[in-house]
């Protein structure tokens, strides 16, 4: 019997927007959102120029907007964001593809560089597995740092191989939309780049 598994990037592949940016705007409001990005613009320019790594740039923004936020309050905001905002960002064709794969008996896994906290409520409601960036907490507060590595690029491959023995599957489907997804796409027997645009 064929065993199938499918790995989906989330932001830009399943969604039509970057959920990290939308979550920041949802939590902070538009004024603080734009102020925060203006104040941190030198770091964002350094990232665009390749002088600052993806994880470093992300942690700067996470610290600014979420550092020292109580973890339980953050969880509440994430659940509300997942319920109120994420459904409108989902690409209909992506959802149809997920449902088609599930109907064919495939395991479906989201592999995302965005924090797991606001993706998990949505993914669990659909019966999907999730591998995503984890945020560090200390003494019940977010530090603004990432726990371990940002789930991006080769880290997506590492997480997949850690969680699944791909040799057990006859068919491996991978879906992504940026160069950061290309290492994951290389694992596939069927790969799809920007398939739902």
TrEMBL record:
Instruction: Please give one Gene Ontology molecular function term for this protein.
Output: L-phosphoserine phosphatase activity
Task: Indicate yes or no for the key word Transmembrane.
Answer: no
Give Gene Ontology CC terms. cytoplasm
Q: Which NCBIfam families match?
A: HAD-SF-IB, HAD-SF-IB-hyp1
Keywords assigned:
Hydrolase
Membrane spanning residue stretches? none
Q: Does the keyword Hydrolase apply?
A: yes
- Signal peptide positions (record): none
What is the designated name of this protein?
HAD-IB family hydrolase
Q: Which organism is it from?
A: Candidatus Pseudobacter hemicellulosilyticus
Q: Which Pfam families match?
A: HAD
Q: Which GO terms describe its biological process?
A: L-serine biosynthetic process
